[in-house]
Specification:
Pfam family, one: PAP_assoc
EC number: 2.7.7.19
Distance between the termini: 41 Å
Low-confidence stretches: 1-10, 12-22, 37-74, 80-113
CATH superfamily of one domain: Beta Polymerase, domain 2
Largest sheet: 6 strands, mixed
Strand content: 5-15%
Number of strands: 8
Order of helices and strands: HHHHEHHEEHEEEHHHHHHEEH
CATH topology of one domain: Beta Polymerase, domain 2
Protein name: polynucleotide adenylyltransferase
Keywords: ATP-binding, Cytoplasm, Magnesium, Manganese, Metal-binding, mRNA processing, Nucleotide-binding, Transferase
Helix content: 25-40%
CATH architecture of one domain: 2-Layer Sandwich
Mean pLDDT: 81
Cofactor: Mg(2+); Mn(2+)
Strand order of the largest sheet: 1-4-5-6-3-2
Length: 431
């Protein structure tokens, strides 16, 4: 059992009097590092149902549906209203440039070396160590990509013109060892009604999973959310996946974030450590009314954009053609390879940036009147629209302008999130 080790380590801090005096940011991160490492070991023995079934919030508008209706193999489906699109005439190859060696079927340029910042102080070294422990491995990505290829072949028997995209943290550069695989099934190049069309498509996919593919797919579930998904576990790779239909913005923002991830070498370590910090402190679960990982990433990018000497620009302003929301999807994955590194005059260490991140959201950002906008690279006034009223946290989605933090709809949860920033700001002994 790891519990005695955790307790004895914590007792060591107590014996030193660090709890009563107040932990420094370095000591907190050391303790967090230790606890995270052993929590991760202990979670390996936690049953799948306990770890993954987090759709029980009474305020989370989802319904779980299990269907086991036989799917006639000879049935195929199409959308007559769809017009021919280059999307379905071009072989999709995921962009694995810069950080991860290309998969065997990749055909675009890549850089073989991964550049990380040099850590010249203890806290920066701890950030780097935690990042290297937690970051998604090449083997993880290979397993997800193999599952995508196999599923696409099976799904195309039902929807011949469809394409299956790997999106989200698996490809955006901010993935971790525990990241689920996010898949977007594109059945046509026009928007689909998420309440009707998307659910219908997913119900057919669910039938496929529960019949023909039942030997390979474990616990498939249809989640009737605002953007409905099918959740499932691939028995071969032991990876967990969420599959949506035509959530096109997720494809576009995947490669926008990927570009941010690799144009400045301090971005990825800082984002991954913040995600792990948030998860450890229970403020990284949208199904329970806190922040989703996408919002946390945007919060870090926004902070780096708003420093007196910015570390990141607004890519959408600097390269509007590359991030045109009307760009054909089969071209989107090429964008990260075309954007050069951003050379910032800001030489702050990872440790200083982590401390500054907590300070910014604890004391500087105006939660009541401002909205986070990575698109504008600044905090902007909250919109007056109905969709933004009575929202505790406003974070603009860079492409469609929606609120990525809309899951935080209870004041108690909002206060809990803010208190974590205040607590870490105080523990860091900021002036």
């Amino acid at each position: 059992s790891t519990q005695p080790l955790i307790s004895s380590h914590y007792n060591f801090f107590l014996m030193k009097g660090l709890v009563t005096k107040g932990l420094s940011i370095e000591e907190l991160l050391s303790f967090f590092f230790f606890l995270f490492f052993f929590r991760r070991l202990s979670e390996q023995s936690v049953p799948y149902d306990v770890k993954r079934q987090r759709f029980d919030s009474p305020h989370h508008e989802t319904t779980v549906v299990n269907l086991a209706v036989p799917l006639p193999e000879e049935h195929t489906y199409s959308f007559p209203s769809s017009t021919p699109s280059p999307l379905f005439n071009t072989r999709y190859v995921p962009d694995l440039s810069v950080c991860v060696p290309p998969l065997q079927d990749s055909s675009f340029p890549y850089v073989t070396e991964i550049t990380l910042p040099v850590a010249e102080d203890k806290l920066s070294q701890q950030v780097l160590e935690l990042f290297q422990l937690c970051q998604q491995q090449t083997s993880d990505l290979n397993k997800k990509e193999l599952c995508r290829i196999e599923l696409q072949r099976e799904i195309q028997r039902i929807f011949p013109k469809s394409r299956l995209f790997l999106v989200g943290s698996s490809l955006n550069g901010f993935g971790t060892r525990s990241s689920d695989g996010d898949l977007c099934l594109v059945v046509k190049d026009e928007p689909v009604n998420q309440k009707t069309e998307a659910r219908h498509v997913l119900s057919l996919v669910l039938k496929l999973f529960t019949t023909k593919l039942s030997c390979y797919i474990e616990r498939p579930q249809l989640i009737r959310a605002k953007v409905p998904i099918v959740k499932f576990r691939d028995k071969v790779s032991c990876m967990e996946f969420d599959l949506n239909v035509n959530n096109i913005v997720g494809i576009r923002n995947t490669f926008l974030l990927r570009t941010y991830a690799y144009i400045e070498k301090r971005v990825r370590p800082l984002v991954v450590v913040v995600k792990k910090w948030a998860s450890f402190h229970d403020i990284n679960d949208a199904s329970r009314g806190t922040l989703n990982s996408y919002s946390l990433v945007l919060m870090v990018l926004h902070y780096l954009q708003t420093l007196p000497e910015p570390i990141l620009p607004s890519l959408q302003k600097k390269y509007p053609e590359s991030f045109d929301p009307t760009m054909q999807l089969h071209l989107v994955h090429q964008v990260p390879c075309t954007i050069p590194p951003y050379l910032s005059k800001n030489e702050s260490s990872l440790g200083d940036l982590l401390i500054g991140f907590f300070k910014y959201y604890a004391t500087e950002f105006d939660w009541s009147h401002q909205m986070i906008s990575v698109r504008e690279a600044k905090a902007i006034p909250r919109p007056d629209g109905v969709a933004w009223r009575n929202k505790f946290i406003c974070i603009e989605e860079p492409f469609d302008g929606t609120n990525t933090a809309r899951a935080v709809h209870e004041k108690q949860k909002f206060d809990f999130i803010k208190n974590e920033f205040f607590r870490w700001r105080r523990q860091g002994n900021f002036k």
